[in-house]
Design a protein that fits this description.
GO molecular function, one term: acyltransferase activity, transferring groups other than amino-acyl groups
Distance between the termini: 16 Å
Helix content: 25-40%
CATH architecture: 3-Layer(aba) Sandwich
Number of strands: 6
Keywords: Acyltransferase, Transferase
Number of helices: 3
Protein name: GCN5-related N-acetyltransferase
Structural class: alpha+beta
Number of domains: 1
Strand content: 15-25%
Order of helices and strands: EHHEEEHEE
Shape: globular
CATH class: Alpha Beta
């Protein structure tokens, strides 16, 4: 069974490990390169998790991180869904839907009516509507209204 965990600054080693695994496995899906992340040490990782108003979630399977998603406050616009990744072993089991729903719920609770999907222009991932998020995901650079997750 996969558990979701909201991570805080004290969880920086967990976030670091999954954040490094993501571009190593799917470099085309991220704007930052794997080589960009080893620098900075503990304080850089903690700072990422301390972004005011941000929400970071990790999916755990038997204690191992198998996915992640982040929500960042919008700069004058809707909040952004970022850093979504699920390891190959966990794909096809609804992990991505659960991660997206968790960020969508965070956005709703923060008073948002839309959630922007931030993706690399080189990403081969196709934004899609997820049944569990009822329109949480939209195409790049566009926003759509969000509603409460049904699951």
């Amino acid at each position: 069974m996969v558990d979701l965990r909201v991570v805080t600054r004290d969880d920086w080693p967990l976030w670091r490990d999954v954040r490094r695994a993501a571009p190593a496995e799917a470099p085309h899906a991220f704007t930052s390169r794997l080589a960009d992340w080893p620098r900075g040490g503990e304080e850089r990782w903690r700072a990422r998790l301390e972004t005011p108003g941000a929400h970071h979630v990790v999916a755990l399977l038997d204690g191992r991180a198998v996915g992640m998603a982040g929500g960042l406050p919008g700069d004058g616009g809707p909040p952004e869904l970022r850093s979504v990744w699920v390891s190959p072993e966990a794909r096809g089991h609804g992990v991505g839907d659960r991660l997206i729903a968790a960020v969508g719920t965070w956005a709703l609770r923060a008073g948002a009516t839309a959630l922007r999907l931030a993706v690399s222009r080189y990403s081969r991932a196709t934004p899609r509507r997820s049944p569990s998020t009822s329109g949480t995901v939209s195409s790049p650079r566009r926003s759509r209204g969000i509603s409460s997750p049904t699951a």
